[in-house]
């Protein structure tokens, strides 16, 4: 059994995605898929999730190929989680067309022993009750990152706030930050969110980069400039996965190491959106990541 340095709970989905130019049906997606794919470049990463017995073997092999530990992945009788969405012209606005929870309605995370001692935990986008269940089963984690989505903010706000309180860092996108705080100004939103408990608030702004707020200070980081974006689905998950994977590898937490980790998250996400599903990430190498990190540093002079 491998020592798991980073445990990630989230969804594994079979997605149907429509962009202004293309449509892909039944492709591999889900917050845990993208997050683990981003993290496993840097550290031993275990996936806590569930699939149905319809889950294709070829998709499972992608996780294995990417060195993601699957001891925490359950297979239940029934259908895998399914989600479909459509992007508007500029790819910034997405509408969810359908969500079928399927096996997630019966999912109770079981943590193999080597996951229970993982110092780093990422509670990727999934029902806040499941996020809390996982967190309660990890013994003394060193650093916990949480992400969420509009449906949990709208319907399970008090469950969500209960779990956020126990986390070290909260990441969410601009519209989710405004929805959760009811504040239009992002700095005001970050100041409100920090009072919920986490020491670090990271607001994702898509192609505009991200804003990190901690200890009364904030800093912004650009996204990596790309002239091609095939599908932005999962960008937030691979960004956060890359970030916490790199942080777990550095294994030291302060504003400088977090900034360094954000650079790696930004770069991993920029590769992810070059193609649908995990198609680009599964071919990506650490060397390509390092080259783009250097390019990012040159562009931004950091
Ligand atoms: P993102 O683009 O970062 O919001 O992530 C999109 C991925 O999240 C897709 O691959 C979906 O399968 C998955 N997803 C969509 N809705 C949900 C939900 N309610 N809970 C968990 N995962 C979801």
Topology:
Elements: E1 6-9, E2 13-18, E3 23-29, H1 31-39, E4 45-52, H2 57-65, E5 68-69, E6 73-76, E7 81-87, E8 94-100, H3 113-116, E9 120-123, H4 128-137, E10 143-147, H5 150-155, H6 157-164, E11 169-173, H7 174-181, H8 186-194, E12 200-204, E13 210-214, E14 217-221, H9 235-250, H10 255-272, H11 286-300
Parallel strand pairs: 1-4, 1-9, 2-7, 4-5, 4-6, 9-10, 10-11, 11-12
Antiparallel strand pairs: 2-3, 7-8, 12-13, 13-14
Helix pairs in contact: 1-9, 4-6, 7-8, 9-10, 10-11
Bound molecules: adenosine monophosphate (AMP).
The site of adenosine monophosphate has 17 residues, from strand 2 and helix 9.
Unique bound compounds? adenosine monophosphate
Overall shape: it is globular
- Average pLDDT number: 97
Q: What assembly state would you assign to the polypeptide chains in this entry?
A: single chain
Q: What are the segments in which pLDDT stays under 50 over at least 5 consecutive residues?
A: none
Number of strands: 14
Radius of gyration: 18 Å
């Amino acid at each position: 059994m491998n020592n798991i340095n980073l445990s990630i709970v989230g969804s594994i989905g079979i997605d149907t995605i429509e962009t202004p130019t293309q449509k892909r049906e039944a492709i591999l997606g889900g917050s845990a898929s993208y997050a683990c794919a981003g993290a496993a470049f840097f550290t031993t990463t275990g996936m806590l999730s569930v699939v149905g017995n319809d889950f294709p073997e070829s998709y499972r092999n992608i996780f294995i190929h990417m060195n993601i530990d699957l001891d925490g992945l359950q297979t239940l009788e029934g259908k895998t989680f399914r989600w479909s969405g459509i992007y508007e012209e500029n790819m910034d606005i997405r509408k969810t067309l359908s969500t079928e929870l399927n096996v997630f309605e019966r999912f109770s995370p079981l943590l193999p022993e080597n996951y229970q001692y993982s110092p780093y935990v990422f509670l990727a986008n999934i029902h806040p009750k499941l996020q809390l269940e996982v967190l309660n089963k990890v013994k003394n984690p060193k650093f916990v990152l949480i992400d969420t989505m509009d449906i949990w903010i709208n319907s399970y706000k008090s469950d969500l706030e209960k779990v956020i309180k126990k986390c070290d860092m909260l990441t969410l996108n601009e519209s989710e930050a405004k929805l959760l705080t009811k504040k239009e100004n992002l700095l005001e939103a970050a100041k409100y969110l920090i009072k919920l408990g986490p020491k670090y608030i990271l607001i994702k702004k898509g192609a505009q980069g991200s804003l990190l707020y901690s200890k009364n200070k904030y800093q912004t980081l650009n996204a990596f400039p790309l002239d091609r974006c095939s599908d932005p689905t999962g960008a937030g998950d691979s960004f956060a996965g890359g970030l916490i994977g790199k942080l777990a590898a550095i294994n030291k937490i302060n504003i400088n190491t977090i900034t360094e980790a954000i650079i790696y998250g930004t770069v991993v996400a920029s590769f992810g959106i070059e193609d649908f599903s995990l198609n680009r990430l599964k071919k990506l190498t650490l060397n390509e990541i390092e080259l783009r990190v250097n390019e990012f540093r040159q562009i931004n002079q950091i």
